Amino acid sequence: MKMREFVNDLMHRHGDDVPIFTHENTVTHGDLRANVSALAAQFSDVRDGSTVAVQVPPSFSHFEAALALWSSGAQVISIDHRLRPAEVDVLRSLTRPEFFVRQKGDPADGFQERYELTIEPAGGVPAPTPHRLVQFSSGSTGRPKVIGRSTRSLIDEVARFEASEGMVRGGERLLLLNSPAHSFGLIGGLLHSLAAGVQLVFAASASDVLRRARTHKVDFVTGLPFHFDLLASSPDREALRTVRGAFAGGELMPQEVADRFAAAYGFPVGECFGTTETGALTMAVGGTLRPSVGPPMPGVLARVRDGLVEVVQEESPYLYEDDPTRFSGGWFRTGDRGEFTADGELRLLGRADSLVVVRGNKVDLTEVENVLRGHPLVTEAVAVGPAEIQAYVGTSSSGLSAQELARWCAERLAEFKLPAHIHVLGALPRTSSGKIIRNPDVLAGPGGG
What we know:
By secondary structure, the protein is α/β, with parallel strands linked by helices. Helices cover 27% and strands 26% of the residues. The strands form five sheets. The protein has an eight-stranded mixed beta sheet, sandwiched between helices. A six-stranded mixed beta sheet has the order 6-5-3-4-7-8, sandwiched between helices.
């Protein structure tokens, strides 16, 4: 099945009056079909196989643009609206889109129902592969890797959500706190909800979550762990009294946060584990399996080899350069350390690479280091986490300040990637063999703090 056929099937599964989006206003499936058709007409130059970058803030418009482009047979290149122009230029050079879809005017601070969208030629080329969703993940060098999702992989992931025990069902309301630019927002949120007849509810900001949940009597909540941390810090049991289930993804849920949330609201937060390359892999809606993240979802074949979690995939997820350290012999190595329990539950033990999570956003520290090294007066740089980014730079200049480097980074990195503190040193500490030391305790010691 082609992506355009799959999307058109999803959009016609339910009646005109069945709601799909709700914020201040509600969009029904009939409204959605009309809105998508109007956008497809606006995007009339897009053809089957066109490559289209989409950088639109969280909104009904973002989802409708993706559906319109898929309905035309396009390859959708999803770009986070928070990225700076220099970061976007890197992604454009890697993927060479033919068109670029953006909103008119400045983005709102949080979710907004509607933006007027524009589409402009971008001077690129048609899709060299049949993949219909392209996303990005930073590799070990800090250069983003281009990830392609085939139509088959998207169909299979939607089917996994539909078959998972306890997942939100048709006729229920899902308060979706995940970004529409990322995997779960697009697939577990939008595509699964279209398939199952779920109504998506959105909050304008973190402070708006409880009000939306109360107003719309939501049945289910999904988000990042920091969303549930915020909810647990300002409990309002009445606002979530209709909620029967919730789960977090994007990073491991800290046990302390899960305990505080359960104590505040009387029900647990479940867990969903996956990667951009693979989509969702495990699901434990009940939230009773920690420190396990649950069993593999239906159709997922996973193993642990050399301490790292691997899953079966038909092809490498990387479009423009292969990585034999991640994909070999039909197995994709996720980069997560883990083990299986005697009951077949997957327990994650942490990342094996440089990824950290800052306020719910994944950041590759090597990308931060590369930006710092790009400053003409910086000779070496190290960035460490995990909760906040601390950067240490070496320079021979006596005039280079942390403030100058902070400005340099702010022009080249999204806000959530910025170092919380930058320490300027004459030279970074090294091992006896000459390697830069990355141990935060050593870096912050005498001469490093």
